[in-house]
Write a structure and sequence with these properties.
heterodimer, A: alpha+beta, Alpha-Beta Plaits, 12 helices, B: mainly alpha, 14 helices, 74% helix, binds iron/sulfur cluster
């Protein structure tokens, strides 16, 4: 390497300040060094979490079990309004999951396939790049986090996310326990007393169940989905060549949403 | 100098009270929004910025345009503009104040606004926007105040003010460039993801801002003994003409790229704005209205006879303002969010409280503008300029 470690860390740091994106600079200046240099303190360092969803196995039951497991654990309210909808994981058809990819002769099974969409925990996340308060940021293991206590609700991250993965609390989500029309739809809210509810005016989204990962467990959508259809979801560490997700991706053809935008999504759809 | 603000005719007080009333209604609606959250607006998961951010964007342009009178005077020694630089600077102060207010009312969590300073994040364009906007506000406050008080005393302003003036010139360009960067660097929003967006912003700023300034000059001449001057107005007309032509030209460049390449993503927003998409065409009449006014404006500005006659020039200015306001204050933000990341169309229209809050902010801006102009004009009358 023609540039010593200290010097390249400096350049990489500088280019981050200049907004060039530290990761990109690392990749150019010293491919592979990022893992080594960030391993030290941050949780999950050296890993790159990813999810693979088998579109062939996803059916209505998988969808309802996975979404309700997620939304109940994370106290996502049903606000009964498309305008104010909050969702962390949701169903979408092929045409709208991969806009621009559909054509009139696409095979029937793909045309009618159902997809589960969620935050892609992009390796190069534009949402984190634009946030003015670091209320959304990327952990060393790639998980893109949200701090609802710091978010000022500017919604810059929502404009920046090309996947529509972020929801905003346009009003107080806790009103589902007070407003009569909403109470019936949200019996038992907050469903999970150990997980915080959010306040109005902040953004939220999927966390890859980081709280469970830290306990060595798996994301809830996956656990729920695999109970219905074994193997419909696979979760794992992409940096480990022996991980089940890596071997699955070696075997099966996979799609990622809008890969051409360079955000490097970590949710793969097997077709 | 504030003494001049407290002496005025009936019309002056009547106008201020009228503005205060609108501000009061706006404040009332804001308190309601503060209580209920932004759900009282028309914004949604898909169109997550709306009227507020659009007004903000438009007004950054108005603020930046002050430089169009400052630059010829200080850099090209164009003496005639010496009479009206203060009007440009005071317009900038009012406009930036409105910008900051529009950002504020758009925040989901306004009490946390200081987080932007507590956790400075240089990779966020919003962080830089905050710096350039506040910097521009301070620059214009210092410059305007010092230049005007020197004029009153019949002295020359201190030389450090000159340094600030030179700084303020590139600074004005920076505020609108940085504001364009808020949009132009977002992946997947094709309408905004355009290298020419900052240039387009500047062009539309440098026609709409001076157009407003020109109208204000005409009003000042009517209501006071201070005449901003025939030559000044004529030169402003020329500036507006060039900038408006550039603005239209840049827009046509966008149209060419989108429609000659035939790339769907590049065409969708334009189709949505001008003809509607998937049956959603609420903005189309607005956009065609803008196109119509732009056409009228260009015509009146290009033909020397109509540009030089003050009443036709005034009509041209009104047309410029309407056209650019619809383009930037309505089309830009809504068009950028449509279609949404899934290729669907979600309608957005501002709600009544949203519009009242918007009017409240505009009224606040005009209140500040009136008071500042009253001050400037009184002093100009006093020294018999
Ligand atoms: S999917 Fe959107 S919210 Fe999630 S990491 Fe990527 S850009 Fe950010
Ligand atoms: S809404 Fe919150 S998380 Fe999103 S960019 Fe603004 S401060 Fe950051």
């Amino acid at each position: 390497m023609g540039i010593d470690r200290r010097a390249f860390l400096k350049i990489a740091g500088l280019s981050t300040i200049l907004g060039l994106g530290g990761k990109a600079a690392f990749d150019i200046l010293a491919p592979g060094e990022l893992e080594a240099s960030t391993n030290a303190a941050s949780p999950g360092a050296g890993k790159r979490w990813a999810m693979a969803i088998d579109a062939r196995l996803v059916d209505d039951k998988v969808i309802s079990e996975a979404t309700s497991a997620c939304h109940r654990h994370h106290n996502v309210p049903d606000l009964d309004s498309a305008k104010e909808e909050i969702k962390w994981i949701w169903e979408e058809d092929y045409e709208h999951s991969f806009p621009g990819h559909q054509h009139e002769f696409v095979s029937d099974d793909i045309k009618h396939a159902k997809f589960l969409l969620l935050c892609n925990h992009c390796s190069n996340p534009p949402c984190c790049r634009v946030c003015p308060t670091k209320a959304t940021w990327q952990r060393a293991d790639g998980i893109v986090m949200m701090d609802p206590h710091r978010c000022i609700g500017c919604r810059f991250c929502m404009a920046a996310c090309p996947f529509g993965a972020r929801s905003f609390n346009w009003g107080d989500p806790r009103r589902v326990t007070r407003v009569p029309e909403l109470v019936a739809k949200n019996q038992g809210f907050p469903y999970n007393k150990d997980y915080p509810t959010r306040a109005k005016g902040v953004v939220e989204k999927c966390t890859f169940c980081v709280d469970l990962l830290e306990k060595g467990e798996q994301p809830l959508c996956m656990t729920a989905a695999n109970k219905v259809k074994k193997g419909s979801f696979t979760f794992g560490d992409l940096s480990d060549p022996e991980s089940p997700i890596r071997s699955l991706l070696r075997k099966r053809y996979s799609l990622r949403r809008k890969f051409e935008l360079g955000t490097n999504p970590n949710v793969f759809y097997l077709i | 100098m504030l003494d001049t603000v407290l002496k005025g005719k009936q019309g002056y007080w009547g106008w201020l009270i009228f503005l205060l009333a609108i501000m009061g209604v706006g404040l009332g609606c804001y308190l309601y929004q503060f209580q209920e959250g932004l759900r009282i607006t028309g914004m949604s998961r898909d169109v997550s910025w709306g009227f507020y951010i659009a007004q903000f964007t438009y007004l950054v342009g108005v603020a930046a345009s002050g430089v169009m009178v400052v630059l010829p005077y200080y850099l090209h020694d164009y003496k005639a503009f010496g009479r009206i630089t203060i009007l440009g600077e005071f317009l900038a102060i009012a406009a930036v104040t409105m910008c900051i207010l529009f950002i504020f009312v758009d925040l989901g969590n306004p009490v946390r606004i200081m987080n932007v300073l507590l956790y400075p994040t240089p990779n966020s364009i919003l962080f830089w926007d905050m710096i350039v906007l506040n910097g521009y506000l301070l620059l214009n406050l210092f410059i305007g105040w010092n230049v005007l008080s020197a004029e009153r005393k019949g002295t020359h302003y201190p030389s450090w003010v000159k340094v600030l003036i030179y700084i303020s010139i590139p600074w004005a360009f920076s505020i609108h460039t940085v504001t364009a960067f808020l949009y132009a660097g977002l992946p997947g929003r094709h309408y905004w993801l355009s290298a020419i967006l900052a240039a387009r912003f500047l062009a539309s700023a440098f026609c709409s801002g001076p157009a407003l300034l020109l109208l204000l000059c005409l009003i000042v001449r009517k209501v006071s003994k201070f005449d901003p001057g025939k030559e000044q107005i004529r030169t402003l007309g020329g500036i507006i003409a060039y900038a408006m032509l550039l603005n239209v030209f840049f827009f046509i460049l966008e149209l060419f790229t989108a429609f000659y390449s035939q790339i769907p993503g590049h065409m969708h927003s334009f189709q949505f704005l001008f003809s509607g998409l998937e049956g959603h065409g609420r903005l189309a009449p607005w956009m065609w209205t803008a196109a119509g006014f732009a056409f009228v404006a260009v015509l009146l500005l290009v033909i020397p006879a109509t540009r030089r006659k003050e009443d036709t020039l005034a009509i041209a200015c009104v047309s410029v303002i309407i056209a650019t306001w619809i383009d930037k204050g309505l089309g830009l933000v809504i068009g950028g969010f449509t279609p949404n990341p899934f290729g669907r169309v979600t309608d957005y229209w501002p709600t009544t409280p949203e519009i009242l809050i918007t009017l409240g902010v505009w009224a606040t801006g005009f209140f500040i503008l009136t008071v500042l102009y009253k001050m400037a004009v009184s002093i100009k009358e006093e020294v018999g300029a």
